[in-house]
Amino acid sequence: MHLTPAMQAFILHWGEMGAKWGVNRSIAQIHALLHIAPEPLDAEDIAETLGLARSNVSTGLKELQGWKLVKASRALGDRRDTFMAIQDMFDLATAVVEGRREREFAPTIAALRAVAEEAKADATPETVKARMQETLETMQMFDDWYRDISRLPRGVQLMMLKLGAKLARFIPKG
């Protein structure tokens, strides 16, 4: 696949953004390439286009599939898998948020719940117990809010996103 300067810039920026979010730069670049590719690509094409080792591409594709950001497919008579990223940006954002929730946010809530219980039985100062409980309750509130919103139809979610800041103008400050 031939990359134009704009395509290269997109892939490089996506890699930088991924690195800031804790994702390996190469994996983020693989995702960026697949996100903008008009057709599915095989691992060889990805490696050649990005100048990456084939083993790095294979590892990256497995991780991206684990995050449900990339799907593999195979054409009849072809032994090679081809890969395609989620193309719809709303679906992509949803997959990223849900993946982060499952891997990071929900386990943190469970750990906070366990720590708060443990603190009830030990010599943890009351002020520390209160801070732990406040942290747990706030994180649980955000998680409950996310789960409620994620159950709404996509059209309603989009309407709420578009409404966003406009709503803040009608709410009294302070």
Give start-end ranges of low-pLDDT stretches: none
| Count of helix runs | 7
Helix residue percentage: over 70%
How many angstroms separate the termini?
54 Å
In CATH's first tier, which class of the largest domain applies?
Mainly Alpha
Q: How would you write the strand order of the largest sheet?
A: 1-3-2
Order of helices and strands: HHEHHEEHHH
Description:
With 174 residues, the chain is mostly helical. Helix content is 70%, strand content 6%. Strands 1-3-2 form a three-stranded antiparallel beta sheet. The radius of gyration is 21 Å and the shape is extended. The mean pLDDT is 93.
Gist of the model:
This protein folds into two domains: 81 residues, Arc Repressor Mutant, subunit A (Orthogonal Bundle); 80 residues. Helix content is 70%, strand content 6%. The protein is built from seven helices and three strands.
